[in-house]
Amino acid sequence: MRRFHETAFILMIATLLTGSAFFCEPVQAGRSSWEAGVRGGWSFNDEDESFSQIDLFVNDGLPWSWQWGSAVQVDTQLTAAVGILDGAGDEGVAGSLGFEFVFGSSAGKCPFQLRAGSALTLISEDEYGDEDLGGPLQFTHNISLYYWFLENLSTVARVQHMSNADLYSENPGVNMVMLSLVCRF
To answer: Which end of the chain is less packed: N or C, by CB atoms within 10 Å?
Structure first.
């Protein structure tokens, strides 16, 4: 099954790269933009089951932004994702809807962005081997570093934590490192 996930991840990246060559346009200053991407990653929990996850996601710019000092622009965006969560040979669907802050250069010349956000997450399976995640309602918090190596194409390194905020008697949480490829439209 792990081979299937690796193949699916490679196919999604190839599709995104091919599609970006035809559909991505340079973003004009002051215009709200949306992004689409694929990400995959693995857990780094010490004593618990090992997890992997692969997602398709979209981000859409929201109208709220602030200037922070003379060099930093803070924007906001809506995020949504759907993917497969795999652990101990068990698989489930994970879907999320959330909000992110985007910290970038106000001059737009720096290719790096720092993003931090939270999302309401629903999982179809809450037991993976010996690991009981408590229930279907989870919360995912993340911090990400984007590198825009082209005007409309970025690689992303992301660290995320998913848990249920003690809504259920079990709340082990899942910590993951994820890598992404994103196209801005």
So the answer is: N
